[in-house]
Specification:
This protein is α+β, with helices and mostly antiparallel strands and about 70 residues long. It has a two-stranded parallel ribbon. Helix 1 links the parallel strand 1 and strand 2. The protein is globular, with a radius of gyration of 12 Å.
Length: about 70
């Protein structure tokens, strides 16, 4: 089980990790889960604060709501 205690861009690999481990389950707090399912708002908000340095974290891959 992959437990996400909070959601930041430095967790960009969480979606990729879930793809690499198809039998794994993911758990996240109710406030963070929507951002892992659809990271577009997290990316947009981070770009406002960090501008182009968000690319340092790689691509955020969504995690399926059923994971």
């Amino acid at each position: 089980m992959l437990v996400l205690t909070h959601v930041h861009l430095d967790h960009a690999a969480a979606g990729q990790l879930m793809q690499a481990l198809p039998n794994a389950r993911a758990g996240a707090a109710s406030r963070g889960a929507p951002h892992m399912i659809d990271p577009s708002m997290l990316i947009a908000a981070s770009k406002v604060v960090m501008q182009e340095s968000t690319r340092l974290y790689g691509d955020l891959v969504p995690i399926s709501a059923s994971a």
